[in-house]
Specification:
With 225 residues, this protein is α/β, with parallel strands linked by helices. The chain contains six helices and eleven strands. Helix 5 crosses helix 6. The longest helix is centred in the middle third of the chain and has 13 residues.
């Protein structure tokens, strides 16, 4: 792994990504969406992608461009409904059977990614037991409570947004911008970060919120579009 992880452009940061990739994408409540990288992935024209993203249709994310282009085979998320009136592009495709959906409780979604990054293949949780979300999943009783077995999530590619980076890939986030990004970076074979700025000097140790050991490529894209 190179020590200098800077990449000149978002398009180059997508080198090596193939059809059928499982792509983890950060973002929550309007913060931390790597929209420049998402567009670069879209422009690559890949097919049969699986997106692991908290919201399939968030109005501040451009994941819908991948979906509208027919590049996505499956979405794993905790929120599938759109904010606008009527159905989103994702919902329309799902109704027609053109795209798969795996909907998860948000805590389980986060823990499945964290577990994947930690090398834990599966875990039991009481969340979702007795609901449609647990259909087809193994269950087990511990003490006086029933639990659902959830398997870990890992991916081929993680796309995350941070505020600042250095050439070594160390990242500093701005407030809620961190959300799922740090966990996703640990759970993917290739992790790419877009940032507002890449500092000339190494980030100060107290400022580092995600170590560069988990980041393979970093690209400066300026302020959020």
């Amino acid at each position: 792994m190179p020590i200098d992880k800077r990449v000149a452009a978002a398009a180059a940061a997508m080198d090596g990504v193939r059809d059928g990739a499982v792509v983890l994408i950060s973002g929550f409540g309007g913060a931390g969406f790597p929209n420049v990288l998402i567009r670069a992935l879209c422009e690559r024209g890949l097919r049969d992608l699986t997106l692991v993203v908290n919201s399939a249709t968030h109005r501040y994310s451009v994941t819908h461009e991948l979906i509208e282009a027919g590049q996505v085979r499956k979405v794993v998320c905790s929120a599938a409904r759109g904010h606008a009136k009527g159905l989103s592009a994702f919902e329309e495709r799902w109704k027609k059977g053109e795209i798969e959906l795996e909907c998860l409780p948000q805590g389980s979604f986060a823990e499945k990614i964290r577990a994947g990054g930690a090398g834990i293949p599966a875990f039991y949780t009481p969340v979702g037991f007795g609901t449609e979300l647990a259909a087809g999943k193994e269950t087990r009783r511990f003490g006086d409570r029933d639990y659902v077995l959830e398997t870990a999530i890992t991916g081929d590619l993680a796309l995350i947004r941070a505020d600042r980076a250095d050439r070594y890939g160390n990242l500093a986030f701005r407030y809620a911008q961190a959300n799922f990004g740090p966990a996703m970076a640990t759970a993917a074979r290739l992790s790419v970060a877009e940032v507002r700025i890449i500092e000339d000097a190494p980030l100060a140790q107290p400022d580092i919120q995600l170590a560069g050991a988990f980041i393979d490529r970093v690209v400066a894209v300026g302020d959020m579009p």
